[in-house]
Amino acid sequence: MSTQERFLEDYDPAEYPSVALTVDLVVLAVTGSTLHAPFIRRGMHPFKDALALPGGFVGPDEDAEHAAWRELAEETGLDLATHRAHVEQLATYSSPERDPRMRVVSVAHLALLATDGRSLPELAPGSDASAAHWKPVREVLDHEELAFDHREILTTALERLAGKIEYTLTAAKLVPEEFALYQLRHVYEAVWNTEKLDAGNFTRKMSGALIGTGRKVARSKGAPAAVFTVRSEYLSPPMARPAATSDH
Amino acid sequence: MSTQERFLEDYDPAEYPSVALTVDLVVLAVTGSTLHAPFIRRGMHPFKDALALPGGFVGPDEDAEHAAWRELAEETGLDLATHRAHVEQLATYSSPERDPRMRVVSVAHLALLATDGRSLPELAPGSDASAAHWKPVREVLDHEELAFDHREILTTALERLAGKIEYTLTAAKLVPEEFALYQLRHVYEAVWNTEKLDAGNFTRKMSGALIGTGRKVARSKGAPAAVFTVRSEYLSPPMARPAATSDH
DNA sequence: CGAATAGTGTCTGTGAGACAATATATG
DNA sequence: CATATATTGTCTCACAGACACTATTCG
Fold first, then answer.
1. Which phi and psi angles does B125 have, rounded to 5°?
2. Which structural domains are found in chain B, ordered by start?
3. DSSP tag of A224
4. What is each CA distance from B197 to B117, B208, B220, in whole angstroms?
5. From its phi and psi, is residue B138 left (phi > 0), alpha (psi between -120 and 50) or beta?
6. Cα–Cα dist A58/A22, whole Å
7. A18, B19: Cβ pair inside 8 Å?
């Protein structure tokens, strides 16, 4: 029955060849109300001239998540100890034909970077031509050819994020540690690709999970906005069911 | 840098050794109001005498999901063309130390089998001693040692299912195509490990997604229950946000 | 002052949960 | 009839969305 029982005994490399293991990264950050991700324009076969997600091999002494963090650091050149980031596993893509050159199985990861909403983190400072560049995600999906199964990975990442911010505060991972509500609102608008969320209702809905710092920040026009922090109970793997009555 | 760009050029098997790829299966079915899953008692090192999830290698010409279906069929001996089943990917476990014998990366899958709530599908009819046996999942978690990282896989599977049935009709995958509401209610009670859900409220909440067949089925005591089918819009990857106004 | 924006107040509709009431079966 | 269960009815509460209103800033 080929259970794990038979590892050493029956393992036949001809029948069960090993595979190369990689990670692919969907790194997201928001400017204005638009989602951006780094892409690499491929310079050679296969999928020459198409866009690809950054990624790389999983080393012999690390797991996939570690490889994702490492690639993220290499790609962005960010000091991730300082710059807040969120990495989570998305799904694993293992079709035998996904890379025509060899059998490559990839564990796709979603990474979220905090921005102030006005600029994107600089990518791989001082690297060569094949480095990654930030591109608006929807435009890429609409107008660009994507290499391998990266279109599927990308759309899965967007759907996952769109769903997750409905019932968690994951959106706060895309915003500085201290932020005004309009910044968080712009994140929701970017992820949901929607026009305008009602600012009043948004404020009310979020306020329960936030702590005011007492400070305010001025904008170019209008009243200054209060600065908040996420209440610690709502951070990290934020409780999936906050106000649930625990039964039903 | 290490992008996929450098595959053929820089690929150094010493630096990036390949890995064995397997699937591990959490197969769930309900009897009464209790969740059960098949486990295999290990007969040899490592984790001798501990319980393990069924699983097996991913073949050279199949992807992980195909391997999961294949292992499910081999393990249960079920004709999956007939017997309804649901398989979805859970997560990938890739710690270098997860199997002390060699580097094994496993794509964990969740499989749901339909039952009438009174009996479990027979497992691997006519196989040897190391075959899998149905065991109540909570008791296993409370009282048994689990091999490898299978405890983590199992708890992840339960949490995922518990969350998913909140906003989808995935629970219907654990019940026959035509079913009475008490059967579906028992599934919720099993997955949420809860005493009793209010039958009246449960009926109301579900009825919108169901179609009555017009038939009724008698129970040992009490009024007969109406037989339903899941409305097709609510099946498969059931709509994640049914009554959502699409713009928050 | 006029425009833009933050944050609050109000109203309404929906849906969940507690619980009662009614209907229908078994023994 | 006593008991168990299904299904419907009611009431209440919480929350989301629409929208008006006030307050605060810039130019």
1. -60, 130
2. 13-163 (3.90.79.10), 167-230 (1.10.10.10)
3. -
4. 17, 18, 20
5. alpha
6. 5
7. yes
Between strands B34-41 and B20-31, the pairing is antiparallel
Across chain A, where does the E strand assignment appear?
A: 20-31, 34-41, 51-52, 55-57, 85-93, 104-113, 133-136, 179-180, 210-217, 225-230
B181 CB less than 7 Å from any atom of strand D: yes
- Statement: residue B1 has pLDDT above 50: no
Q: Is the pLDDT of residue A158 over 80?
A: yes
Beta bridge partner(s), residue B112? B28, B86
Judge if pTM exceeds 0.85: yes
Q: Which position has the token pair 């690809």?
A: A52
pLDDT in tens, B86-112: 999 999 999 999 999 999 999 999 999
Interface of A with B in 117-136 (CB under 8 A): 124, 127-128, 130-132
pLDDT tens readout for residues B135-181: 999 999 999 999 999 999 999 999 999 999 999 999 999 999 999 99
- Tokens representing B143 are 């009282």
A12 DSSP assignment = -
